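Researcher: We're teaching a course module on how sequence relates to structure. For the next exercise, students receive a sequence and then see the predicted structure as tokens, so they can try to spot secondary structure elements on their own. Here is the exercise chain.
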Amino acid sequence: IAKLENYTNCNEKLLIKMFVLNMKSGIMRNTDDAPNISFRVETINNIFDSIIESFEERGINGQEAGEIFYKAGYKCGKSFGQVFIDDYRSNCDEIEESEVIQKWCDFDSSVGWGRLEYSIGENTISITNNFETQRKKDRNFPRDCEFFKGYITGVLSEILQDDSVKLACISCDIRPKKSLKQKCVYRICYGV
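Model: And here is the predicted structure for the students to work with:
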């Protein structure tokens, strides 16, 4: 359930998303009847920061922590990507990979991940205002985007049916927390 609203002050379009909450069971479901939870960005980032603090206490360095966040994101992306592509296949006779990638970018953009964009010509995925870039901790431990980089890779590996898909970071423009221009751009690579 969604409603598109025009925000007159900034000429922006806002999409109002709704979930169904069963007050008796406490379960919130989205339109495909999957159970969901809702976090503030600060809450999920506090979870990530707590995990990082535990890594530091155990002597796990930034690169190792980044690999762990990447793996967690990848697993989440594979799981979501499988559901997304199965649903897409059940509703479409023919599947054009670029169309599916664009639909996925539109979907994840509509649920608060940040603004995902796919450039067919450049074979890139960009994310503007990724929730991870708003973390308060040292931005070098691990790099802010490792979880989301893993997530994107996992989703793409399912859409493209290719586990060799990797992302190469082209740019990661992380600005102060209050900026709405934080953007990471990744090139999609195959067989690497």
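Model: If you want an answer key for the exercise: The chain has a mean pLDDT of 82. The longest strand covers residues 166-173.
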